[in-house]
Amino acid sequence: MQGIQIIGMGKGVPARRVENEAFTKMVDTSDEWIRSRTGIETRYFCEDEMQMDLCVDAARQALANAGVGPEEIGLCVVCTITPDYHTPSSACMVQSALGLPEDIPAFDVNAACSGFLYGLEVVSCMLGSDALPRPYALLIGAEKLSRIMNFEDRSTCVLFGDGAAAAVIRPSDTHRFFCRLGSQGDAQALNAPGIGYPEPYIHMDGRKVFQFAVRAMENGIRLLEKETGTRAEDIDVFICHQANERIIRHVQKKLKLGDEKFFINLNKFGNTSGASVPLAMAELMENGRLKPGTKAYCLGFGGGLTWGAAYLEF
Ligand code: UT7
């Protein structure tokens, strides 16, 4: 079976960093509550930036790091629940900004915090197809969640952040890739009605999503072990959706895995939904932790309720 290789990544982060303390002026909360219940210390919010600006910054960096030119891209996919426009898609906006070829597919994927996992699977299937005239895919996870947050709701506004990260991906016979995706069709636990509906903000039953998240991660790891013939203890790094440090630590302890293997950067970025997994991956790559031969389990969960689990070799 053909695999995929991620050959370059990049980040797009808004200029404005916001400390926990800022929320004490808006709602009844504290730095102590946010840190101890979530692990979050700061997050970034867009001011003048559009979501597309973050995508373009991330994509330019990823292309430069991969040594690939825009003219070589054969597929452009953006994973997001907060595109600037309903249409054109963020992917089409990126295509225009970067001058990508016009004979390639460009579209968005909406699978909330599992988005990048869904995107990886879509890209891996399409890269093998004759329909693509060029060898590389540009896959981006991007969110401007500050646009759909209710800054009067303490149970959600302290959690989320804006950001983007991009990956340049090519098909590979030597890098195995396996992915499994799922969804529960649950509109209650986590939703964000569109513009024009009353209260068009993120609503979340935190405890319900927490329980789902822990189950989705545990099941995902067991499934990857079974389907890929690998063992969790032999995996070099676990790249998880960055929603809450307690979710990640709970799973890591239950499965008796080393905590240094579970990368965490939610302290800096908060929960950036579709951007969270690629932001973690991009930082791991920056830090030299995704070397040739590194084996990773990648785990996502979120609105939908969706989940995704992937095995990747670097
Ligand atoms: O990315 C999509 C996936 N999302 C997630 O994975 C999120 C999963 N859920 C979580 O991470 C956690 O459930 C939260 C961080 C959202 C909440 O943490 P929790 O430990 O589950 O808190 P809770 O909802 O059980 O609330 C505990 C208390 C409540 O007060 P009472 O009823 O005990 O008096 C809340 O009203 O904490 C209160 N609370 C707050 N207090 C201070 C809720 N938000 C805040 C806040 N500051 N910001």
| Structural class designation | alpha/beta
CATH superfamily of the largest domain: Thiolase/Chalcone synthase
Could you give a short account of the major beta sheet? 5 strands, mixed
Mean pLDDT: 97
- CATH architecture annotation name of the largest domain: 3-Layer(aba) Sandwich
Strand order of the largest sheet: 1-7-6-4-5
**How many domain regions?**
2
Based on CA atoms alone, the radius of gyration comes out at 18 Å
| CATH classification, class level of the largest domain | Alpha Beta
Q: Which ligands accompany this protein? A: oxa(dethia)-CoA
Overall spatial form:
globular
N-to-C series of helices and strands:
EEHEHEHEHEHEEEEHEHHHEE
Q: How many separate helices?
A: 9
- By CATH, the topology of the largest domain is Peroxisomal Thiolase, Chain A, domain 1
Task: Summarize the structure in words.
The protein has 2 domains: 170 residues, Thiolase/Chalcone synthase (Peroxisomal Thiolase, Chain A, domain 1, 3-Layer(aba) Sandwich); 137 residues, Thiolase/Chalcone synthase (Peroxisomal Thiolase, Chain A, domain 1, 3-Layer(aba) Sandwich), CATH 3.40.47.10. The relative contact order is 0.20. It is of the alpha/beta class and 314 residues long. The mean pLDDT is 97. The strands form 4 sheets. A 5-stranded mixed sheet has the order 1-7-6-4-5, sandwiched between helices. Strand 4, helix 3 and strand 5 form a beta-alpha-beta unit. Helix 6 packs across helix 7.
